[in-house]
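User: Show me a protein chain along with its predicted structure.
Assistant: Here is one chain, sequence first, then structure tokens.
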Amino acid sequence: MDATDARLLLALAQDPRASALALAERLGISRNTVQARLARLDLSAVQLRLDPAELGYPITAYVTMVLRQRRLDDVAAELAEVPEVIEVLGISGETDLLVQVAARDGDDLYRVAGRLLAIDGVQRTTTSLVMRTLVPHRLTPLLERVAGRQPG
């Protein structure tokens, strides 16, 4: 990704419905360049970020998991089947996985946490409730740096 790609993504973030012609005019590049770059960029990897609360899941929690060795792939496959699991990260340190989950209320979170603990290969879990989001998920500062709009 170069500065032009980053500028294109920033423009799309500001106006997701902009046409190739509008983007070209805004960025000062040709429409063919915009179309070629959009075709090359994997925009399917750019996912819509919805707030789970708007879907009826106002509680967000992170569950750390300690696994039995050699069960990572099986556990990950089972986690992918749980609709309330938003993201699963393999991490270093004393725990093996960091799992972001969404729940409707405290009872629902208890049910989801129990379901995760019941997965074969999971030895122990710790659940931490998100009290407040202080810095939301963002990529704009990185795109601005790549686009050359910030010193770096």
